[in-house]
Amino acid sequence: MIDNGLPEGWELVVGLEVHVELATKTKLFSGSPNRFGDEPNTNIDPVTLGLPGALPVLNQHAVELAMRIGLALNCTVKPSTFHRKNYFYPDLSKAYQITQYDEPLNVDGFLMLPGGVRVGVERAHMEEDTGKSSHFGGAGGRIHGSDYSLIDFNRAGVPLVEIVSHPDVRTAEQARQYVNELRAILVAVGASDAKMEEGSMRCDANVSVRKYGAELGTRCEIKNVNSVRSLGKAIEYEARRQIDVLETGGTIRQETRHWDETDGRTHTLRAKVDANDYRYFLEPDLVMLAPDAEWVERVRAALPVLPAARRTNLAVLTGADEDSEAIAVVVERGQDTYIDEVKNSGGDAGRALVWVQQSFAEEGNAPRLPAKDLAALTVLERDGKLTATQAKTVLGDMLEAGGGDPAAIAASKGFEALDTSVIEGFVNEGIAVQPDAWAKYCAGEEKAMGALVGTIMKLSKGKADGKVVTAILQQRRGS
Amino acid sequence: MSNFTSATSIAQNVASGAQSAASVVEEHLQRISQREEEVHAFNLVTSTEARERAADLDARIARGENVGPLAGVPIALKDNMCTRGIPTTCSSKILEGWKPPYNATVIDKLFAAGAVFVGKTNLDEFAMGSSTENSAFGPTRNPLDTSRVPGGSSGGSAAAVAAGFAAVSLGSDTGGSIRQPAALCGVVGVKPTYGLVSRYGLVAFASSLDQIGPFSHSVADAALLTEIIAGHDPMDSTSIPKPAPSLVSVLGRGVERMRIGRVADLPEGADADVLARLDAAFVALEKAGATIVDVKLPSLSYALTAYYLIAPAEASSNLARYDGVRYGNRVAANDMNNMYADTRAAGFGDEVKRRIMLGTYALSAGYYDAYYGKALKVRRLISNDFAAAYANADVILTPTSPTIAFPFGAKTDDPLTMYLCDIFTIPTNLAGHPAMSVPFGTGQANMPVGVQILAPTLGEEAMFKVAAVLESAA
Description:
The structure holds two protein chains of two kinds. By secondary structure, chain A is of the alpha+beta class.
């Protein structure tokens, strides 16, 4: 049994519904720009506004991006259809949303979490976004009781893919991993910028609990989760709430609940009995979307290496742990190919990973520093010609200048590896300055080593190689 | 045959300089000023725009330009096609005053062909009706007998041509809305194959059934107009990705060795005078060398029922956008739901409300399978029946309307009687096939009777060949 943080015997069951905006130039059914942050109601046209007589025309690039998502999630791409989901709301210009219903484009896939858990993907279907309403006056920014409302139709018709998982997630941490991994895949395949804070990625969680071995419990859908962190908190809160209800003899009502970031709770939004009857029917203004096998294979063949495989490759290349922070961060930034280049230029991949993780946060996936220059630096370091501290200083100069010969920079700074006999001298001085630390270290207190090394490094003005200092100290202690 | 000049002749005369576009327009505007008050074919007569347009065409022709195959032809447009900057109302109060910011594709095509728009014609509100009595702006009268209806829903477009207000006009046909008024007004009316003419800019009634088509005095004019408005439009996903067919060139090829289908199990309901003209049409075609064959269409009797589930279902969705939020009329209320309700209660007429309710019900959870789902199955059966029939026949002949033009109010009390007007025209829309009505003599009260020619998908050539023969035999 995995640790889900819940009281003994309770199992958490979560399914996730993730909406992502596709990174197309234009909208799903019209030629208006798909762009975030523009002046309200500027990216509009007769189709977006649902003017009488306007007709939708499917954006081929959106289909291609949707297929990339499906294929990256190991789905089968199938002939599919569009339906109308009918409901009245001022920001829904046609009073129906065009969405895929019983015949979605992508079905039956899965996503492997970094820890090795397999989460099934039921479907990844296409649909259009609505406009954005803002309500002014009254209570809580809701339409009821507000003085007036404004609508921005720039978002209306923006292409979305909704990715629906099976209820295979068992912990809040897995839910976070799922969303993080999904986001990494979406970015990697170029389908979306997947920014939860800008709303280009939105996540709803279907949460239920049960006693191990029991039937699935009644689920509640949690909406308004605006970050991966909130997702975990919302799931944990909701699970505990449901357990409290069940343990005090109550029953869970199937409903949609709203996560409130400020009080850290979920609140009833609407019960299932109040749900709209959407009167779905086949959208008569569109024809079947049936990508031919040749198109599907072309998209599949053009898929980049996905994050999971890239992490494995980078771990092999650098000797680092596949689940380490460094591997995750560098792959997420797309800097793994850069490290590959450093290696190919004769550099040390393991050292390169350290430097890239520490110093390349602002560099993006195509760092300005030529790979051969970083390669040269890692060679100097590996060969003991530069200490880590010196290398960091040299790298700082190289990054600032956009390149350079690390050996020359090191020489100009007077950096040279100190002879072991000189370092022995600094060690002697250091022990003399820090007798207490030396005594503690000798008594087996490993933490005391830090103070000694720090002092010795300072005395050498950073020129001593920390690794050599450590080795000498260990040797003297006799361990 | 009428004594009005055909569009084909007008275009030839104007292009050659034998007649100015301005004089053609004045001639038609004059007839409008003489009879429009009585007929009420139009929601709006665009006389200023028409005169400006004619002057522009004359200037271009004087410079030696070719202004297109419809040079100077006055044309009337059903008021459910979007015209940039010109009110488009669908004869509904809810859209009164709304000016579209864009043109329907057919409008751009006609304009490029040199046509002159004279006005927007009256219709049953949102094209729902068979008599044009459902217009929010008052009924249109049949120019041949103003005590009678012109048919509908494109009654204004049919009447405009019949009265000589325009040489030709465009209508839309969802269940017979071009063919039935054409028959009742004694003009030619064509519903092309679904997808042959772009629907972009046609205000939707029932999207899977709607199709734009022409009204004219002659079969040749109808062929010319169909050629011009047809062809693939990337703005309409249901538009057939093929070039427009060549139709004028097939006229006069005759019907020798063609197989004309007679429906052995034709649903009952047609009046004797109408059936007599249908029989006469078969005789005329046989005489011209065609063979008459019996075909069976057993599911035809379910067509009306299926149509009155499918069309209202789509309409309930298509008309949901008229909520007072973005355009059209709004009735202010104390909250959003009341604003919706009051706006729609005030903006829609009874027939539109009836169909919205019918369609909403047919699509509702728990009723979908029994109503909408079953209607879709009937639709497939009808297509199958037609496919079997067309294995033995090139075209099929039926009455267009079961009756001649009826007096005002004759069918307004009972929606079902009104719905039965379309019993012979509806199956074509469900199948997506082309069909047209050609005047073929008169029935009771000396009122015209139309004969309907049905053809399979993209069977316009065969249909027009038969129409030309019937026209010359009428």
